[in-house]
Design goal:
The protein is of the alpha/beta class. It folds into 3 domains: 180 residues, 3-Layer(aba) Sandwich (Rossmann fold); 54 residues; 51 residues. The protein is 61% helix and 8% strand. Helix 10 runs antiparallel to helix 11. The chain binds adenosine-5'-diphosphate and magnesium ion. Adenosine-5'-diphosphate binds next to helix 1, helix 3 and helix 11.
Length: 310
């Protein structure tokens, strides 16, 4: 979707959030799934990252253990965390952090509990002179047992995160974060996305204006909903084209109307029958009867054929 339509209608919001982040605040972006939180967070990170005195970690994992592992890994690679602090071979401490191969050490680090990981992460961040910002893509599923660990990280680093719902059992964590609600996209932006999608995918739509108005209304300002609706109908359109082609095949049979031919044929047969009776021509009378039988049975076959083509 992003590749197709870009990032539409969020410029001001991204700028506002970036300004808040520069003040060093912990931020929580909220809004329903698909509203565009992750997209906005990414854009904010891109703008913050240009400052050299700031180290930015971007945590994409949604599961708790994975999130703490990702933080540890990023800190290892940026040189803030020494391998020995994660119970790795102390010889690795002398290595250039860029030379560390995560694939090789991941299994050992994975053995540590979230508590162990936090115990290594916190002092490493504290020991760093400059600022550290941790952008966590999604904390919706955070559990009460994890709150203490996140609060400890909050004390050491700045956090920007997203959640589609603020579970009340972790309210202690939410209190520490300044909430910014991500509003639905404006109708104009949604329309722009739909229009761009039609143009770029070359989707065939009978009435584009009506179609766009329909999907924009259905999506209700949610870009993910918009993407799903557009993707669904783009599939449908392919079927539709196929269907139009099939209909044309059927039309070849259906639209050749045999009715006038039948009426003329039956009228001639009836006429011939009377002619035969009037002139007493027995052979002509029999011939007319046979012709009637042939035309009637032909009619039955023709209609059955048209029925099948449908
Ligand atoms: N402003 C936007 N313009 C175009 N596409 C967008 C925009 N915001 C989000 N999207 C697309 O919508 C989808 C959902 O966005 P995402 O940021 O993952 O939502 P959330 O994190 O709130 O669930 C993604 O495919 C994303 O590329
Ligand atoms: Mg997200």
């Amino acid at each position: 979707m992003r590749q197709i339509t870009g990032r539409v209608g969020r410029e001001e919001l991204i700028e506002k959030i970036t300004r808040e982040a520069r003040k060093g605040r912990h931020l929580l972006l909220t809004g329903p799934a698909g509203i565009g939180k992750s997209t906005i967070l990414e854009a904010v990170i891109d703008r913050l990252i240009v400052r050299r005195d700031l180290i930015v970690l971007h945590v994409n994992e949604h599961q708790a253990k994975g999130q703490f592992l990702e933080i540890a890994r990023d800190l290892l690679e940026s040189g803030l965390l020494k391998p020995s602090a994660l119970e790795l071979d102390a010889d690795l401490d002398d290595l250039d952090p860029a030379a560390l191969e995560w694939a090789k050490i991941k299994r050992s680090v994975n053995r540590l509990s979230i508590r162990d990981l936090t115990a290594a992460i916190i002092p490493a961040i504290h020991a760093h002179q400059g600022r550290v910002l941790i952008a966590v893509d999604d904390l919706t599923t955070v559990t009460p047992t994890l709150v203490a660990f996140w609060l400890a990280i909050l004390d050491a680093a700045q956090i920007i995160t997203c959640a589609s719902a603020k579970r009340p059992n972790v309210a202690r964590l939410w209190w520490k974060l300044a909430e910014i609600e991500i509003p639905p996209l404006s109708v104009d932006s949604a329309r722009e996305i739909a229009q761009a999608y039609l143009t770029q995918t070359g989707m065939l739509v009978e009435s584009p204006a009506l179609f766009i108005a329909h999907v924009v209304q259905q999506a209700n300002g949610n870009p993910q909903a918009l993407a799903d609706l557009l993707a669904d109908s783009s599939k449908e359109r392919v079927v539709d084209k196929q269907r139009i082609r099939e209909m044309r095949h059927a039309a070849g049979v259906r639209y050749f109307d045999f009715t006038p031919v039948m009426i003329v044929a039956l009228a001639s047969i009836i006429g011939t029958r009377y002619l035969a009776i009037g002139t007493g021509d027995t052979e002509l009378y029999i011939f007319a009867g046979m012709l009637a039988a042939v035309v009637i049975s032909l009619r039955v076959f023709l209609f059955r054929g048209a029925g099948k083509a449908n």
